[in-house]
Amino acid sequence: MAGRFRPTTPTTRTTIRGGDTPVPAPADYPLDLGLTLGPLRRGPADPTFRVTPDGSVWRASRTPDGPGTIRVAVRDGAAEAEAWGAGATWLLENAPALLGADDDPAAFVPRHKLVLASHRRRPGLRLTRTGLVLESLIPTILEQKVTATEAYGAWRQLVRKYGEPAPGPAPEGMYVMPDARTWTQIPSWEWHGANVDGKRSATIVRAARVAARLEEAVLMDPPAARGRLELIPGIGPWTSAETIQRSNGAPDEVTTGDLHLPGIVGWALAGDRTADDEAMLDLLAPYEGQRHRAARLILLSGRVPPRRAPRMTPGNITRI
C-alpha cells in the first residue's frame, strides 16, 4: 500500500497528502525527516526504527489494526510513504500527523538569541504525533533512572525476543513490539536477563494491563493525557511528559524530573548550570504553550555546561 506526501525537505514547501485522499493539513511547510522522527528512535540499534542508506525512514508499529511497517522517503521534493501489514491503512492515514501536519511552528516566538539562532538553523523541525501511547510509554519506563545504553539494550532485547518480525520488505532485523498481553506475560527472569529491575518491569506490566484506557489519552488534551498516565503507580511527570510529547505531539509538555535538562536550559538561557526544575520552568515561562519546542531547540543548539562530575555508571542487576 502506498501514498504520496508533499512536503519534506528543509527547502521545499508543498502539501501533505495521505493515501489516495487529501488529508487536511496546515499551510505548506518545510520538513526535516531526521529532526522530526528522530525522537522516536530508541538508540542506534532500535529494532522498530531504521534509516537506510538512501535516506528512507522505516518504522514498525503495533497499531489499533495490528502490526504494520511504514517507510517514508524524500523523492523529488515530496515524501513518499508505503506501508505493509494489518496496520498499513492506519499508518498511512496517520502519516501526516507523524510528519508534523498537526504541529504549528508559527505559534513559536523565540525570546532569546540562542533559541532564535537554533530555530533559524532548523526550519524543518516539526513535532511528530504518533497517535500511539504504549509504543512510547514502555521504552520511556525502561529509561527511568538508568543510562540510555542500559535502556536501549533492554528495549532491543525484549522487542526482539517477544515481538514479531516487521511486515513487508522491512530491513533485516526489524521487529514490531509485543502486544499488551505479551508484555504482561514476560517471566521475571527474562526481565532480569534484560537488566530491568522489578520496579520498572512492574510498572510496564501495570500499564499493559490497562493499555486500552491508556491509548485513549491520544484523544485528550495533553495535561489530561498526562493525568491519565500518572494514575498508574510508577509513572510520574517525567515519564508522562516524555510519552505524551511523542504520542500527542504536545508542544508545551516540558520534561521535569530530568537529571540533565534543567542544568542545560539554565546554562543556555542564564549561565546557571545549577538550575533545578523550578528555575527551568521560570526560564521557559516566556514560551508558555511552546515550552517543549523551546527546550528541544536549546538541546539542539549544542550549548551544554562543561562536565564536572563523571557520567552515570551503568548498573547490572544480572550480577545481583
UniProtKB/TrEMBL annotation:
UniProt-annotated stretches for the region Disordered: 1-25
Keywords assigned by UniProt, alphabetized: DNA damage, DNA repair
UniProt keyword Cell membrane present: no
Ranges annotated as biased composition (Low complexity): 1-22
PANTHER family per UniProt: DNA GLYCOSYLASE (PTHR43003:SF6), DNA-3-METHYLADENINE GLYCOSYLASE (PTHR43003)
Name of the protein described by the UniProt record: DNA-3-methyladenine glycosylase family protein
